[in-house]
Structures are given as structure tokens and as C-alpha cells.
Amino acid sequence: MDLRLGVVPLPLALVIAALIAAFAALGQVPSDLLMAIAALSLGGFACAEIGGRIPLLGSLGFAAIFATFLPSWLVHAGLLPKPLTEAVSRFTDQSNFLYLFIAAIIVGSILGLDRRVLVQGFLKILAPIAAGSIAALGVGCAVGVALGLGLRHTLFKIVVPIMAGGVGEGAIPLSVGYAQLGGQPQGGLFAEVLPPVMFGSLTAIVLAGALNLLGKRAPSLTGQGRLQPGEEDVALSGPAPTAAPPDLEAIGAAAVLAATLYLLGALAQRLWDWPGPVVMLGLAVVIKLARLATPALEAGAYANYRFFRANVTYPLLFAIGAAKTPWEKLVAAFTLPTLATIVATVLTLTATGFAVARVVGLYPIEAAIVNACHSGQGGTGDVAILTAADRMQLMPFAQIATRIAGAITVTLALIAFARYGR
Questions:
Q1: Domain annotation covers residue 76
Q2: Alpha-carbon span 325 to 399, nearest angstrom
């Protein structure tokens, strides 16, 4: 039982596989929480184990890549039992699994930050994001035009979708806006802008893994998850070896706090169309800055963060890959000019963050990773990118790059499309 596949003991992995096969043979795999815990743990950690053990590539974040994209291919190839795929899709759609994870990660990492550093970090990270967005826009369009894709197609169908904030917050609003402004069917436009979003996220995952590898070889370039020098909060680096662990009631209270902040964000989105995750992030910042959480509650929130990062990341990526990542859309991006344009855009965005970081007093590798999240597949991309980089504590800053910068990108793109894109 001590021989494990991720966190799953090997004998249990064999039992779970047999259980899934038995339920699939009966025609329906349960889509409840209990089956999800077993099936997603087995699938997520098995895929991550395969990707992480590939020579050379394993150190470039391929555990996260395989945990996300291998299940997508397995569904496309019909190698996952259809009842299992349907159960995973139902659970992912109905349980809000992704936002439970993001809530725990954001609240735990925010409450573990030093208050002074928190304010400075949020202000400073805007500089590399803005500089990277402008540079990526110029380089991406130049590469696309040089390869014969045309300026309008490159700008509106490739470069802008990459930085738009994912599928739900980026590709869908863009395609709806393009359809309304251009008088074209929204479905066809969505099929055009989705592949750059997905392959851009894949490129960012690989770059994040490479940055993690660079950080191990050049320690002076990284804060090992800390955004800037002087960020020395106990919670971020973990409690001291002699410190008592947080009590179970504090961990439970922190879980309720995370759920409450998510629901407040969801209500704000319903009432005023404010992005729910950004509202949640802002409320967590207010709680930290106003000292509304006790040290025990902060320690409980950080314990939840560590639990979700270690045990839930790969199962979540497996669910996203199987339920939310259509393999056909990803393959549609595989033309040489489009691939070159996507890689050039994401590489420029990430490299600019690396270059600008020292100017504003940030660690280059951390700033580059946050910039890479600007080209990610929304919240799912943030999880995969930060997992590949082994820096999940950057999630609050990744949300700024994804949500706020993505919303600004979509708004400016639709204004430009109304004047020049039709």
C-alpha cells in the first residue's frame, strides 16, 4: 500500500480500474463525488506519472500536459469507456470542481502573503503584463503577416484569442462579438478562435516547465514562488518544523471562508457582470489587509492550499481534459503558419515579462510565469501552467493576468474589430 501512483496506493488503483470497468459494463458510471474522487485520482495521477517520467520532457512540465491532453485524446480515440466520459463530464459541469479548487488556492495563497508585499506585488505585476501584451501583439502580428496569414486574421483570430483569458471569458465573448459586428455565424467563428486559445495554453505550459528548470540551474533568477525579494511570510514557505499544525476546526473554517468568498463573487457576477474570480480575489485581499482573519484561520487557509495543490491538481486536469478539451479543436491549429504565430506570441509575452521584471523589482522567472498565464486557457490554463512551473502560490497574480488583462484584451479587440475588422 506504500507503493503509490501519485497519492493512490497501487492495490487501490487496480481495484478502482476494476470498479470502473464493472460499472461501465453495467451501462452507467456514477457521476457522484465518491466515484469522481476515485476515478479522477486514478486517471489524473496515472497520466501525470506517464508525462513526468519521459526523459528530458518530464522536467518541462509534461506531467501537467499529459494530465490535461492525454485524456482528451483518449476520449477522441474512444479508449475511455463512454459511460466514464459521460460521468466525468456531468460531474465537472455540475459540481463547480474547478472553482472550488481556485477558491482554495487563491484564499490560501493570499492569506499566506505578507501584507506589504501583497500591495507592492499587485501593483508591480501590471508592468510586465502590460509590456508583454504590447510586445506579443506586435511580434505575433508580424510573424503571421510574414507567413501569409494576413493582418486582420492574425490579429483577431490568433493573437487576440491567445491573450483573451481562456474559453468562457475569452473565446466565447470574442466569437459572439465578432458575429454581432460582422454578421457571421457565431459557431464558425468560435471554431476559428478556439484552437489558438488551446495551443497557446499548451505552449505556455511547456515554457513554464522550462522556466522551472532554469530556476533550478540559476537560483538568482527566481524566488522559488515568491514574486519579489523581501517576501518572507512564514505561511508561504510552510510552518517551521517545530510549529504545531493548524487545528482541524481552523482548516474547516478556512474551507467555509473560501466557499463564501466564491459565492459572493458569483453573486456579483449575476448582479453586475463583475468577473466572479476577480471579486473573490479582491475580497481575499481586503480580508488580509484589514486583518479580518486570525493567524489560526490564515494557517488553516494555507493548509487547504497545500492539500489542494498536492492532491487535487492532477485529478482536476484530467477532468478538464476529458470534459472540456475537444481534441479535434486542438488539432485544427496544427498548420505551420498558425503554430509559428502562436509560439511567437506566447514566447514574446513570456520573455518580455522576464526582461521587465528586474526594472520593477520582481524575480524574472516568477514574472515570466505570470505573463505566461496571460496566454493560458482561463482558470484551467492557470492551474496547468502553475503546476508545470511548480509555483501554485502565484495563482492570485495569475488571475490578474488571466481575468483582468484578458477582459481588457477582449474589450479593446471588439472596439478595434468594429472599426477595422469587418
A1: no
A2: 20
Q: Which domain holds residue 344?
A: 97-421
In a domain, 187, yes or no: yes
pLDDT at residue 237 in the model: 40
Distance CA 52, CA 64 (A): 8
**Which residue shows C-alpha cell 482541524?**
248
Q: Are 104 and 280 in contact (CB under 8 A)?
A: no
Residues in the chain predicted with pLDDT less than 70, given as ranges, are: 57-61, 114, 117, 167-169, 172, 186-188, 191, 230-244, 333, 421-422
Give the pLDDT confidence score for residue 233 in this predicted structure. Answer: 46
322 within a domain of the structure (yes/no): yes
Which amino acid makes up residue 363? Y
d(CA 346, CA 385): 12
pLDDT of residue 240: 39
- Quick one: CA dihedral 147, 152, 158, 160, positive or negative? positive
Q: How far apart are CA 341 and CA 339, in angstroms?
A: 5
**pLDDT of 115:** 73
Cα dihedral 145/132/203/178 (nearest 10): -60
Give the count of domains, the chain. Answer: 1
How many other C-beta atoms can be found within 10 angstroms of the C-beta atom of residue 3? 8
**pLDDT computed for residue 407 by the predictor:** 77
Task: Give domain status of residue 7, yes or no.
Answer: no
- Alpha carbon distances (Å) from 262 to 75, 139, 313, 378: 31, 37, 18, 16
How far is CA 124 from its chain centroid? Answer: 21
Closest residue by Cα to residue 195 from 213, 175, 218, 215: 175
Residue 346: name the closest of 192, 154, 203, 134 by CA.
Answer: 203
According to the model, what pLDDT value does residue 60 have?
64
pTM value?
0.72
